Write the structure tokens for this entry.
Amino acid sequence: MSPRHLLSASFSRLLAGLAALLLGLSSLAAAQASHHNVGGAAARSDEVSRREVRKRMKEMARPGIEHERLSPLVGRFKFRAYFRLLLDDTPESAHGIAETSWMIGERFIEQRIRGRRATRSFDGLLILGFDRYAERYVGFWLAESDSGMASISGVLDEDGRTIRLEVESNDARFEERLRRKGALVIESEDRFTLRFEEQDLTTGEWVEMASIEFERDR
């Protein structure tokens, strides 16, 4: 082959190589642009999702009428209680003061109890609010008589003034968690009552274990 023909063949191969290189670069640029667009769309989608989540969180965290129903419990109250430790016990009595206030933007009430029974004084703390996700009243009770906490859950009764409660707490008799049922009855702006019952496993009957009557201290 003549030098002229060799030069022509080399030039043709060079042009083919450049064309392939340009095609490859073009494809790479297109892929990067496509990836950028997809990433941008995903980022926008994430941002919309975040906005929706924040909006939902704000709506579900806002206190509602369910929280307003707890308003009569806020303030300073005198209380008298009757309770028993065992199902067949004669009820004992106690009395004291309960001070209740709103907390965390009126989403929960905090009730501090200081009382006295026949042999000694006692303290307790109740936290109660409404979970708009679970659509239930929720809370817990702490007292010096227990190293754990009693968990509380409840729903509003049809009468509009009674919250039916389910309580789970430690029980020293059986050394395990025990379920009880109860009721918070809001009688007026100045009076409310807490009652708790336990089931007698022998008879199947529910026995009142505690009744606490609160009256506003004027």
